[in-house]
Amino acid sequence: MPQPPPRPLAKRRPSRPLQVGSVGVGGDHPVSVQSMTTTRTSDINATLQQIAELTASGCQMVRVAVPTQDDADALSTIAEKAQIPVIADIHFQPKYVFAAIDAGCAAVRVNPGNIKQFDDRVKEIAAAASAAGTPIRIGVNAGSLDGRLLAKYGKATPEALVESALWECSLFEEYDFRDIKISVKHNDPVVMVNAYRLLAEQCDYPLHLGVTEAGPAFQGTIKSAVAFGALLSEGIGDTIRVSLSAPPAEEVKVGLQILESLGLRERGLEIVSCPSCGRAQVDVYKLADEVNAALSGFPAPLRVAVMGCVVNGPGEAREADLGVASGNGKGQIFVRGEVVKTVPESKIVETLIEEAMRIAEEMGID
Ligand code: SF4
Predict the structure, then answer these.
(1) Which parts of the sequence belong to the IspG C-terminal domain (predicted)?
(2) Is the ipTM beyond the 0.90 threshold?
(3) Contact 286, 319 (CB under 8 A)
């Protein structure tokens, strides 16, 4: 019944661990999921409300944008009241880096491509971050690559992204600051995957994976799943952010599902449902949706098979914790491989819920 322990597909790339507040990143820490708020950070209530929603959806760290002084002023309250570590996202203005560190943010993200005079301020930033124990993410983006590197490479190639990131790291390293994680994001998953592969070979900093500007929900989900899947299956990646033109809780849902699919995170509810075909003797889509809705939030890992007929139905249902194989207006209900009852089609969903509750009770879960 319990799922096997999470296991990576390839040996995890060794990386130096760091702490983003309560969440460990890199080293042996599990790959974490993060997202970013879409509210004005200066609107403290709206931002905290969205962070609460993200926390409820399983988000482990959250980034907030800091484009103005009002946003910087809001950071201390947000960092104090948020349930998960808050990361300040700083572009253009080094002064907000200091504000974020002072405000108690769990980490700061800087973009070397667009922080003017950043090189000159590195010493002070390293000193402030070091004193406060605040890690820094060097976040290189294809869309805002340093002009010198664009001139050198002609466009945002994997080599250009990696050179930008490692050059910025070297500035911090001069001051013995290594509490760093890195991202090298591109909107093209192939370029992005190659950039991270290259980066992984050249440093031992933990890596934050992201396909930037990945697009609307469907396209962004596919791009992220493909790119993260390739990298994570090679052991590359320590924290992930799925970028979607969709509410941030959707990003978290996709991120968690990617990790669960790779066995890098304990599975929650997993519905194994057939695609249906001409043999189906029940409306599989409707039944799968109903079972998914009814068991959503189930407090234990549970694999539930919903099958449309008796061809593959009994086999799949047997492999699951709980399952139904439909046929002739009835559903055979399986629990851990045994048929426990046969019920009319109208009773399938409620019977599965009853059996799920029984399983939870046996596991000592309320
Ligand atoms: Fe078709 Fe049955 Fe397979 Fe579902 S389980 S796809 S209905 S053959």
Answers:
(1) 270-356
(2) yes
(3) no
272 lines ligand 1 (CB under 6 A): no
The token duo for 258 is: 């990617």
Return d(Cα 28, Cα 60) in angstroms, integer: 16
User: Is the CB–ligand 1 distance for residue 281 below 6 Å?
Assistant: no
Ligand 1 atom at shortest distance from the alpha carbon of 313: 5
> pTM score, two decimals?
0.86
The ranges of the chain annotated as CATH 3.20.20.20 are 18-262
320 Cα–ligand 1 center, Å: 16
Task: Write out 135-197 in H/E/C secondary structure.
Answer: CEEEEEEHHHCCHHHHHHHCCCCHHHHHHHHHHHHHHHHCCCCCCEEEEEEECCHHHHHHHHH
Q: Which CATH class is domain 270-363?
A: alpha beta
CATH of domain 18-262: 3.20.20.20
CATH 3.30.413.10 maps onto the chain at: 270-363
Compute the C-alpha angle 41/45/50, nearest 5°: 75
Tokens at 83, concatenated: 């349930």
